Structure of DUF1640 domain-containing protein:
Amino acid sequence: MKKNTKIENQLLEMIQPRIQLIENKFSLGEALTDQDVNTLLVKSAFHHINHLDQRLDEVAADVAQLRIDFCGLEGKFIELEGRFHVLEGKFHELEGRFHELERRFYELENRFYALEGKFQTLEARFETLEARFISFESRMEATIEKTMKSNIKWTLGLMTFCLTLFKIIDLVVHN
């Protein structure tokens, strides 16, 4: 709050006796002169100026406090901005890691496709081998069957020959 200066105090002291005379005149109901009215107006203006000075001091204090508050808010904003940049950096890091995972996933997917192609090739080879085995089995069965028939024929033929030979020997020996 602004303090009264020496000049203001001197002015108040100069008009104070006059104001007391005017107040006495007014309370007695006497008419006031132009000079009396002007003196009252000067006092009123002085009080008004003091009141405005007080208000100006209050406004200045409020502005100073607002500046302090604004500086505090500005500091907090800068802090938040820094934290935002940290978060943005972490986001970019996560984005990079995601792209790396995505790249590795595509690489793994391509390897699975290659492995699937190898399995299909292997499956085709097994089918070919199965067909060859079935063909080989059929030929083996035919060969075994042919060999068994041939052995049976030879065995029956040899048995018939032996029986015939024994019968001839038996007839020759008994006759």
